[in-house]
Amino acid sequence: MLILGLNMFHADASAAIVLDGEVKFAVAEERLNRHKHFGGFPSLAIKACLDAVGANISDVEHVAVGQDSDANLTKKVQYALANPGKILNFIRLRQRKESMRDVRTLIANALDVDTSKLRFQEHHLEHHIAHIASSYYCSPWDKAAGFSYDGSGDFVSTMMARCEGNDIEVLDRVFLPHSLGSLYTMICEFIGYSKYGDEGKVMGLAPYGKDTYCSEIERIVSPKNGGFHLDLSYFKPLGSNQGMQVLPDGTVRLARHFSDRMEKKFGKPREPRSEISQRDMDLAYGLQVRFEEIFFHLLHELHKKVAAEDLAMAGGCALNSVANGKLFDRTPFRRTYIQPAAGDEGLAIGAALHTYHSVLKRPRRHELKNTYLGPEFSQSRIQSSLQNAGLHYEKFERAALVDTVAEQIALGNVVGWFQGRMEWGPRALGNRSIVAHPGLSNMKDVLNARIKHREWFRPFAPSIMADYQHQYFEHDHPSPFMLHVYKIRPEKRAALCAVNHVDDTGRLQSVTREENPLYYDLIAAFHRKTAIPVILNTSFNENEPIVCSPEEAIDCFQRTRMDVLAIGPFVVTKSKQEA
Ligand SMILES: [Fe+2]
Q1: Nearest 10 degrees: CA dihedral of 430, 380, 23, 337?
Q2: How far is the C-alpha of 9 from the C-alpha of 89, rounded, in Å?
Q3: For residue 131, how far is its CA from the centre of ligand 1 (angstroms)?
Q4: Buried-most residue among 2, 70, 360, 374 (CB within 10 A)?
């Protein structure tokens, strides 16, 4: 049975295809159309899903969308009536959403087929149930607490659920405008990070700050009735677009979230790209501290309702890997399964698996153990791409490839590592990665100057052989999808200086041979040469969506000052091109 899952007309539009309960392929539209966080209709992703399983759209029996505009309608109407200036906007948005619900016509147009060829049944699933489903149904557990939190989705910011067998029972919701995601976005905007997805940057800035504004930020958000409550005087009314607008070309734009009260309290907002002041860092610090406090409070509340040790979690805020890394010490939960695409692209998987397990009552058999669900390219395609680019390359057998690349990393060179199927979700996890030596003190500056051009305060991440994690980090819980930040042990900080953040932490990827044998062997080869079982891993891109195709990888290699490109079995060395 084929089920197509979709996230559409929402940030990070995506498609996923599930065959007999197993996720076979999943991709965000941005990787294919190269439009970051694209929020339109995922036409290319749908085609790629069908191609991957060799199917036509007429073979698809169910299409599931991770959005239901009828969900929580009473709450939406109540909010619109309480904000009369927004009613017209609300009605317009509702009309627009109605036209977007015609999935049949949208798919027929995207694939250029007649609607009579489509035999699928259509399902719409509330946003946060789809988030929780994306995590729980991919986890190995038969029972877990389910938690989802983000800016907003179907007028909800937070959901708690009991997950058992095939069922997800919703226990509680926090409705807009109360939203931890909106709080994070509001303060990010105030300190000059106003683009969709900038929250991760501010999480990296937070440890540079001090406890100057914690008590003020405490007043902006407080625990209430098992949930939490925002002091709305610090916020602009969100309006019916729930704080986010998708333009006709698919660009996602955030509405201004902060009110004039923020300015009265904290001074002028920082202009984007101007110098970062201590005030901005202190606000980031206070924000992260308070965010964590409310998050842990919510998890305690959830645990009172579901006495499990296993937590299945998703939603954009679940990308806050700093908070995730602390929850084992601060809550009763002992294990996490966090959907690697915890943001909204993950809704495609969640909606599809929910249809299979909850609606159709089919049994659960498949755990999602790795994120390599995207496109892959044949050796001949890669080779012809290299030839078309006029590059000189050498071809290696597997063992020699791993050894050669490990040697280059050990020498301090920066390597583009393009192998196998592209990762699903926002993190590069060893198939579309730029890799480098984690123990060279200048490596962060080298990467930023030559390729990444990122803000000075953002750390680079380590990939570690899972067997060595306990020797290097203070926590042993696996972090296969780079979604936990742990303290690095004091005696290992020098060896990992290029990935050791200012607060002596690292957002690690724990790598097992089972999950990614080639990448594991690369780290193992580096370990043999340097005695460090870790390599620095950053995404293969330069201010663009992560590269997907060989041509994009080659283009990124050529326009940046990367030293080496290892693409499939081929190795290209820049110095040899110049010679
Ligand atoms: Fe979401």
Answers
A1: 0
A2: 17
A3: 7
A4: 374
Distance 36 CA to ligand 1 centre (A): 17
d(CA 574, CA 391) in angstroms, rounded, equals: 9
Instruction: Encode pLDDT of 518-568 as tens digits.
Output: 999 999 999 999 999 999 999 999 989 999 999 999 999 999 999 999 999
Alpha carbon of 210 to ligand 1 centroid (Å): 30
For residue 326, report the distance from its CA to the centre of ligand 1, in Å. Answer: 22
In degrees rounded to 5, what are phi and psi of residue 564?
-135, 145
Q: Distance of CA 365 to CAs 64, 353, 368, Å?
A: 20, 11, 10
Q: Which amino acid is at 25?
A: F
pLDDT tens column, 417-447: 999 999 999 999 999 999 999 999 999 999 9
Q: Are 43 and 110 in contact (CB under 8 A)?
A: yes
Q: Ligand 1 centre from 368 Cα, in Å?
A: 20
Strand order, beta sheet including 415-418: 394-395, 570-573, 564-567, 415-418, 432-436, 534-539, 461-465, 505-511, 484-487
- Separation of CA 474 and ligand 1 centre (Å): 31
Q: How far, in Å, from the CA of 57 to the mean position of ligand 1?
A: 27
Q: Are 310 and 144 in contact (CB under 8 A)?
A: yes
Q: Per-residue DSSP letters for 149-200?
A: EEEEETTEEEEEEEEETTEEEEEEEEETT--HHHHHHHHHHHTT--STTTHH
How many other CB atoms are there within 10 angstroms of residue 330's CB atom?
Answer: 15
CA–CA distance, 23 with 230 (Å, rounded to integer): 38
Assess whether pLDDT exceeds 90 at residue 256: no
Calculate the dihedral angle through the C-alpha atoms of 55, 125, 28, 58, rounding to the nearest 10 degrees: 20
Cβ burial of 478 (10 Å; 0-12, 13-18, 19+) is: middle
Residue 122 to residue 120: CA distance in whole angstroms = 6
Can you tell me whether residue 66 is helix, strand or coil? coil
- Bridge partners (DSSP) listed for residue 464: 510, 534
Q: Please tell me the number of Cα atoms within 13 Å of 420 on its side-chain side.
A: 17
Residue 223 burial by Cβ neighbours in a 10 Å radius (0-12, 13-18, 19+): middle
In the DSSP assignment, the letter for residue 232 is: G
User: Torsion-angle region of residue 53: left (phi > 0), alpha (psi -120 to 50) or beta?
Assistant: alpha
Which residues contact residue 259 at a Cβ distance below 8 angstroms, ignoring those fewer than 6 apart? Answer: 233, 234, 235, 236
Task: Tell me the per-residue pLDDT of 291-346, one tens digit each, with 9 for 90 and over.
Answer: 999 999 999 999 999 999 999 999 999 999 999 999 999 999 999 999 999 999 99
Query: pTM above 0.85?
Result: yes
Q: Is 429 helix (H, G, I), strand (E, B) or coil?
A: coil
Measure Cα distances from 531 to 235, 398, 463, 473 in Å. Answer: 51, 21, 14, 16
Distances (CA, A) of 407 to 43, 362, 509: 42, 49, 21
Q: Taking Cα atoms as reference points, which of 63, 133, 37 lies closest to residue 368?
A: 133
Of residues 326, 321, 315, the one with CA closest to residue 293: 326
Residue whose structure tokens are 């006709």: 248
